[in-house]
Design brief:
By secondary structure, the protein is of the alpha/beta class. The protein folds into 2 domains: 145 residues, 3-Layer(aba) Sandwich (Rossmann fold); 182 residues, Dihydrodipicolinate Reductase, domain 2 (2-Layer Sandwich). 35% of the residues lie in helices and 23% in strands. It is built from 10 helices and 13 strands. It has a 6-stranded mixed β-sheet. Strands 2-1-5-6-7 form a 5-stranded parallel β-sheet, with helices on both faces. A two-stranded antiparallel ribbon has the order 3-4. α3 links the parallel β5 and β6. The longest helix is centred in the last third of the chain and has 26 residues. It starts with a strand and ends with a helix. The model has no long low-confidence stretch (mean pLDDT 96).
Length: 336
C-alpha cells in the first residue's frame, strides 16, 4: 500500500497527517508531495521522517492512493496524470465535484457507489459534507422539499493566509497580506469565495449543487447564504428544512442518533447544543437545536456543526481511502 498526500505542507495537509496517525491507517510506503519550493523538507508521520518530493517523482512512483489538497488548478493538471498510472486520486478541491463522470462522496452516504474504475474521486465542500451527513437519513425517510441554509464558516476554511490575517489583527496589527477585503477579527463577512452575476457566491452555489448531487435529487429546492466568521476552526450552519412527508420529532431524533458519524446534542434546557469550540479536532458532525418550524408544513430547524478541516476535508478523504482499501482486501479475500 503506497500512499501519497499532495499538498502536504498546507493547512489541510497537516490535518491529514494527524488523522492518519489517529486512525491507524495502514500503509507500506508514504509519499509526502508538494510544490517545488517545498521539495526536500522533512515531514514526520508516525515518528518517521519522510522527504517531500515533487509531482513528477510522485507520479513516477505510482502510489496506490493519492489524497490531493493542493487547489483546483493543481488537481486539474495532475490528477489525470496520477490516474493514468493506476493511482486512485481523492481530491479535496472543487475541480471535479460537478463533473458528471466523477463520484462526489461522503462515505456514510454513497461510498457503495464507488467502483474500481473510479480513479478520480471528489471530496465535497466542507460545508456540504456536514450538512448532508445529517440530512441524508432524513431525506430517505421524509423526502426533502426545500432547504434554506445560512453558514457561519471559520476563516480556517480559506487557508493559511486567512489564519495569518486573523492572528495579526488579533494582535492589533494590520494584516501584512490579507486574505479578505475586510478585517476578519471581530467581524462577519458575508462573502465566501467569488460572487457570480446572480449575486450568489461560489460557496453558496456549492451548497446547492453538491447537495443535490450527493443526495441524488435535483428537485430539492435550495437557497444559501455563506458567511465568514472569526472562529478559529469549525463551521456552523442554520438549516431550515421543509419535508414532503410529515414527521414525529421523537422518531426524527432517533433516526439522527443512529446515523453513523452524527452526534445529537440537543438538550437546550441544560444548555447543551453544538458549538465549534467543542467540535474542533473531532471527526463527528454535531446536530442540535432541533425544533419544528410551524410556519410551513412539515418544517424543521436544525443547527449543524463540524470541524471543517476534519470531517469537512481530511477525515472524509481518509475515510474514502479506507473504504477503498477495505473493499480491495475483501475482493482479494474472496478471489483467494
Amino acid at each position: 500500500m503506497k500512499l501519497a498526500v499532495v499538498g502536504i505542507t498546507g493547512l489541510v495537509g497537516s490535518v491529514i497527517l494527524e488523522v492518519l496517525e489517529e486512525t491507524g491507517f495502514q500503509y507500506d510506503e508514504f509519499l509526502p508531495v508538494a510544490s517545488a519550493r517545498s521539495v526536500g523538507k522533512l515531514i514526520t508521520l508516525n515518528g518517521v521522517s519522510h522527504k517531500v518530493i515533487g509531482m513528477e517523482e510522485a507520479v513516477q512512483r505510482k502510489p496506490d492512493i493519492a489524497i490531493f489538497s493542493a487547489g483546483g488548478g493543481t488537481s486539474l493538471e495532475w490528477a489525470p496524470k496520477f490516474a493514468e498510472v493506476g493511482t486512485t486520486v481523492i481530491d479535496n478541491s472543487s475541480a471535479w465535484r460537478m463533473d458528471p463522470t466523477k463520484k462526489l462522496v461522503v462515505p456514510e452516504i454513497n461510498a457503495h457507489q464507488l467502483e474500481e474504475s473510479d480513479k478520480i474521486i471528489a471530496n465535497p465542500n466542507c460545508s456540504t459534507i456536514q450538512m448532508v451527513a445529517a440530512l441524508a437519513p432524513l431525506h430517505s425517510e421524509y423526502g426533502i422539499k426545500r432547504l434554506v441554509v445560512s453558514t457561519y464558516q471559520s476563516f480556517t476554511g480559506t487557508g493559511v493566509k486567512a489564519v495569518k490575517q486573523y492572528q495579526e489583527e488579533k494582535e492589533g496589527t494590520s494584516a501584512s497580506d490579507p486574505a479578505y477585503h475586510y478585517p476578519i477579527f471581530e467581524n462577519c463577512i458575508p462573502h465566501c469565495d467569488v460572487f457570480y452575476d446572480n449575486g450568489y457566491t461560489r460557496e453558496e452555489l456549492k451548497l446547492v449543487n453538491e447537495t443535490r448531487k450527493i443526495l441524488g435529487d435535483n428537485n430539492i429546492k435550495i437557497t444559501a447564504t455563506a458567511v465568514r466568521v472569526p472562529v478559529n476552526g469549525g463551521h456552523s450552519e442554520s438549516v431550515n428544512v421543509e419535508f414532503h412527508r410529515p414527521y414525529e420529532m421523537k422518531n426524527l431524533v432517533a433516526l439522527l442518533e443512529k446515523t453513523e458519524g452524527v452526534e445529537v446534542q440537543d438538550e437546550p434546557g441544560a444548555n447543551i447544543y453544538p458549538m465549534p469550540l467543542f467540535a474542533k479536532n473531532k471527526n463527528e458532525v454535531f446536530v442540535g437545536r432541533l425544533r419544528r418550524d410551524d410556519s410551513v408544513e412539515n418544517g424543521l430547524n436544525m443547527w449543524i456543526v463540524a470541524d471543517n478541516l476534519r470531517k469537512g476535508a481530511a477525515t472524509n478523504a481518509i475515510q474514502i481511502a479506507q473504504y477503498i482499501v477495505d473493499k480491495k482486501l475483501q475482493a482479494d479475500t474472496i478471489s483467494a
